[in-house]
Amino acid sequence: MVISIPPAFTLTCPKKSWRPCMTGIWGDAMTTTILEQYFSDHAVRFSPLTHVSYRNSLYQFFAFTPKSVDAVTAQDIREWMLELTRQGYTPKTLQKKLVTLRSFYRYCVTEGWTKRNPTQSIPLPKCTEKECYYLDREALDRLRQISEGRLRDRAIIETFYTTGVRLNELAHIQIHDIDFPKRQIRIWGKGKKERIVFFTRPCAELLKTYLSTRTDTLPYLFVSTRGSRIKSRSIGYLFQKYARLLGFPVSPHTLRHTFAAHLAERGTPLACIQDLLGHDDMENTRFYARLFAQARKEKYDQFS
Length: 304
What we know:
Low-confidence stretches: 1-27
Strand order of the largest sheet: 1-2-3
Helix content: 40-55%
CATH topology of the largest domain: hpI Integrase, Chain A
Number of strands: 3
Function: Site-specific tyrosine recombinase, which acts by catalyzing the cutting and rejoining of the recombining DNA molecules.
Family: Belongs to the 'phage' integrase family.
GO molecular function: DNA binding
Strand content: under 5%
Pfam families: Phage_int_SAM_1, Phage_integrase
Radius of gyration: 22 Å
Number of domains: 2
Shape: globular
CATH architecture of the largest domain: Orthogonal Bundle
Order of helices and strands: HHHHHHHEEEHHHHH
Keywords: Cell cycle, Cell division, Chromosome partition, Cytoplasm, DNA integration, DNA recombination, DNA-binding
Number of helices: 12
């Protein structure tokens, strides 16, 4: 069943007392050089979103701690984490920022920029377990119904639900990535990893109908009303609109969870679901294991 969440909710962003500096860090040209070399050496490994996230976090840290790479101490990192906590950053965000700093200092030690890693003694902040929130069949049908008559929106919703892809992955799907006879799509996921996802016959019909209405020559599966590749932010706004109309929260990630939960209800093995989702880290494994168990129990409860 759908976890009960109040329909009226507001997301607020904490105010930042500093911003990333892209041209230099408090006059420390060597730190800037090392940072840019780090990003250059990881250009193939990092996705565009990972690159932006890591760059913002590292420049943010060195703006807060105006020291050379070799002079940074564990206490400097603890003070930075404390300041981020005061500003309202969540434990999950703090985890991501510390993981970024750890990656950078492992690189610095390997490349000989410093002999010590000040992040080693800093534990990751503890996070509360995420709720396993997904749509039941009735809520999913309501979302489908409310988007009827808007062909592109309807196709986007069905593609999210039947493939389980991430928001940024869907925004970058190109038409040549789709194999309609086999009903599969080649996806380039996090870390530029390639995987194959599948879609249903109804989804295939929606996609073909939508593409038949297009008059542009753009290579992307979904385009904006302005005739360019649809942006992730625009898709996010689209789902916010439908959430307001429906009276319950729904997002692209909600449909990703729904895809996984409904497969679990049908008895699909967890390992297969994780493969389709493109997951390989332990934290996501634990989350989807709980989601898998919850979905199977709710299926069982229907017959008890």
